[in-house]
From TrEMBL, chain A:
Organism: Lentzea pudingi
Protein name as catalogued: Asp23/Gls24 family envelope stress response protein
Top-level taxon in the UniProt lineage: Bacteria
UniProtKB/TrEMBL annotation, chain B:
Keywords of this entry: DNA-binding, DNA-directed RNA polymerase, Sigma factor, Transcription, Transcription regulation
The protein's name in its UniProt record: DNA-directed RNA polymerase sigma-70 factor
Highest taxon in the source lineage: Bacteria
A GO term from the CC aspect: DNA-directed RNA polymerase complex
Organism this protein belongs to: Lentzea pudingi
Any coiled-coil regions, as ranges: none
Xref: Gene3D superfamilies: 1.10.1740.10, Winged helix-like DNA-binding domain superfamily/Winged helix DNA-binding domain
Chain segments annotated as transmembrane: none
KW Repressor (keyword) present: no
Every RNA polymerase sigma-70 region domain range: 29-95
Family under the similarity heading: Belongs to the sigma-70 factor family. ECF subfamily.
Residues covered by the RNA polymerase sigma factor 70 region 4 type domain: 125-177
Length: 182, 185
């Protein structure tokens, strides 16, 4: 197939290298008589042979490559309690570290104490833009908390996720797990 | 599960098991494909150290992203894409002058093919040297197609371009390489 961008390789006879390549095994009248085509065809035949040699060449990877890969995989599994950070997906943060930051943010609201915080990567999370989902259980102190406190917790936790960790929090399930007497 | 038994399992089964956290299944996949991926990387980046690092990164990344692979049977194509990308990234990050430096002591001529004719060795060395004269994308297209026999479609996806552009790059690569091989005709 002749593409315009191949015009650099047009031979004086008007054919281009790629046409000669495509007809390399069907030596037609023109190729037999045209010195330009014949020369290019010879070069292409040499190239084809050298390419076959290259494909046959079984350069083996270093003998410890499998064990190195598997050590890295095992180390990765040990750290598997992690969610990705923005970027190439290779930098990650432990869910425990994320939970600690989010709990601290919730604690800043008067009358609220964070208890459990479960952090998971959201299904819509992608490699450059990680997204997390969080289930946060809190304990409130009766009498010190108004209905505005829940919005405040939500606002602070969302802000902490994006400002302090750099991930988007798509879903925050807030559960009041206990009410303490004030 | 014995090694022989595991070796007979197809990719899709091993991928599904790996996704469930079965590291022995994943190790089988690594053993199965480390060779072709290493050779691909070596031909694109031209240095064994960089090729090793690239392949190690590719298999670790693949392990982490198994969840994103929709078709378990498509693992090999996915590896080819990831390895190609990784190699092109290595080359983009490499300082321009580092290229020649690496080439000096990365001529694997005599040690891998002691039994072959001198002329064949010389041609292969000339081809290897000529490959370094191509742009990284041309080289990747040519190696994927001519040495690893991948489809145009797959190469286009690996390079992030169209089939038309892959064909164009291949044609230019082929013309340039043929020119270098001319003294042997």
């Amino acid at each position: 197939m002749a593409v315009t961008s191949e015009s650099d390789y047009v031979l004086p006879c008007g054919r281009d290298v790629e046409e000669v390549w495509e007809a390399i095994d069907l030596s037609d009248e023109h190729t037999r008589s045209c010195p330009h085509c014949a020369a290019v065809r010879e070069s292409l035949l040499v190239l084809r042979e050298a390419t076959k040699e290259m494909a046959r060449e079984e350069v083996e990877p270093p003998s410890d490559l499998v064990s190195r890969v598997m050590s890295a995989v095992r180390a990765d599994v040990r750290r598997s309690d992690v969610v990705p950070l923005p970027g190439d997906g290779l930098a990650r943060v432990s869910t425990r570290a994320v939970a600690a930051v989010l709990r601290y943010a919730a604690d800043g609201v008067d009358g609220v104490r964070a208890r459990g915080c479960r952090v998971v990567e959201a299904p819509e999370s992608t490699v450059p833009d990680p997204v997390i989902e969080v289930e946060l259980s809190i304990v409130i102190t009766a009498g010190r908390v108004t209905h505005l406190a829940y919005d405040e917790v939500r606002r602070r936790v969302l802000a902490a996720a994006s400002a302090r960790i750099g991930v988007r929090l798509a879903r925050l399930d807030l559960v009041v797990s206990d009410v303490l007497e004030g | 599960m014995g090694v022989a038994e595991a070796a007979a399992l197809d990719d899709a089964t091993l991928v599904a098991r790996s996704r469930d956290g079965d590291m022995r299944a994943y190790e089988q996949l690594v053993r199965r494909y480390q060779g072709p991926m290493y050779r691909l990387a070596l031909r694109i980046v031209g240095s064994s150290g960089d090729a090793e690092d690239a392949v190690q990164d590719v298999f670790l990344t693949a392990w982490r992203r198994l969840g994103q692979l929709n078709d378990d049977g498509a693992f090999l194509g996915w590896l080819y894409r990831t390895t190609t990308n990784q190699c092109l990234n290595v080359l983009r990050k490499r300082k321009p002058h580092a290229d020649t430096e690496l080439d000096e002591h990365e001529s694997p001529a005599p040690r891998t093919r002691p039994d072959r004719a001198v002329e064949v060795n010389a041609q292969l060395d000339a081809l290897q040297a000529a490959l370094r004269g191509l742009t990284p994308e041309q080289r990747a297209c040519w190696v994927l197609r001519e040495v690893h026999g991948r489809s145009y479609d797959e190469i286009a996806e690996a390079i992030g371009t169209t089939q038309q552009s892959v064909r164009g790059r291949l044609a230019r690569a082929r013309a340039q390489l043929a020119e270098v091989m001319a003294p042997w005709r």
